[in-house]
Amino acid sequence: MKYLKAGNIRLFWVTTFVYLFLIFNSLQFLQASDSHAAAQGGEIDVAGIMIHHVTDTHDWHFFDLPGEGHYEAISIDLPWLIYDNRTGLSVYPTTEDLLHSGKYILEHGKVAPISFEVTSINQLAHHVEEDFKNAGGKNIELDSLYWVNLFAREHYVLVQDHNPNIPPRLYKLDMESTVLDLSLTKTSLQMVLVGLAMILVFISVAGYYSRRKGQGPKGLQSFVEPVIVFIRDQIAIPHLGEKKYARFLPYLLTLFFFIWFSNLFGLTPLNSNIAGNISVTLALAILTFIITLFSASRSFWGHVFWFPGVPLPVKFLMMPVEIVGMFTKPFALTVRLFANIAAGHLMLLALIGLIFILGKGGQSVVGGLSISPLTLAFGLFIYCLEFLVAVVQAYVFTLLTAVFIGQAMADHSHDHAEDHSSTDHALAGGSHH
Fold this sequence. Notes:
Blueprint: H1 6-39, H2 46-54, E1 59-66, E2 71-77, E3 80-84, E4 88-92, H3 95-100, E5 104-107, E6 110-118, H4 121-134, H5 145-155, E7 156-159, E8 169-173, E9 179-181, H6 186-211, H7 220-240, H8 245-265, H9 278-295, H10 298-305, H11 312-358, H12 365-409, H13 413-432
Antiparallel strand pairs: 1-2, 3-4, 3-9, 5-6, 6-8, 7-8
Helix pairs in contact: 1-11, 2-11, 6-8, 7-8, 7-12, 8-12, 9-11, 9-12, 11-12
């Protein structure tokens, strides 16, 4: 019975979860490789499968179930919310409803308004010549073929279905329509779920505090409270000061827990990649950038536009350097978080994909089985490392946010005054001697 201690039981469940995750991803990859192999005439597009898993979509795909000659996707179709300057706001429950409306097509995942489908070469030639003349072209036979071809590319779009048995279709774009896609994507929905999870956690923790006043932390409270204290004592106070840290602590806590929970959510077998989406990390960096600018002191702006303590020519030289430095900080925040999280997902998918590359999509069982132990071992290592990366990246983003805000609020005018006084004192001492 000594092996049934609580620590051993927890380790058993954690190990079981990790292996189930790797097996689940392997099965997902197998199903995706089968469908891609069918679409590509027997060739497996591993890179395409990897990119599909980390890009944002309008459906939340979980896994596939085998059917008659194909796999049936188990997913949640998210509604499309489209604003058109000609027809107003429209809602389409699924992607199929959007395409069947006859008003829009999907071009590289983006909604494009169309006028009609081109069904013959003669129809295409007639409309291209007519549109070309209306746009200012004199004669389609006399003008450069390059410009005619470029014009056709801007006004027409060729759509290829994933099924190679379905021929491509040509559509005339509606150049007078302006479309704004306000739809809820997979990443947006997952961000909402993470936000709801944070609300539930902190409401529960607040309930513990109200019911157990003056008592030690217990349950979920004992897990969250040390993290909050750590962010306050090790990040907020040292970089923002004891007088000003409380003003920014709610933002820092929200930032840390959102990134941390999002990264942990991405380690579940639910096809999530929130922080691995550069739009999300860019939005977080912009929030930090805005707060930094609005919290900046007069000394900060003085350093940016009229650097003190240097000769006049150097002031003009430092101005563009400081302005560029203002924008490199949010850029660094954006790329660092995005690259680290996306790289972890891609590494896991690449290791799993290695099985199917050497196994030739199931044609070479020996090749797949020979690399499987090594791949699963490295996959297990990377997956465990991702748990550490999840909290480290949340910490780094929050720390740099506090550092940037603290630097912007700092008043350096007295530092330059002290530098000048010490310089004058040294010069006076030198002349006295």
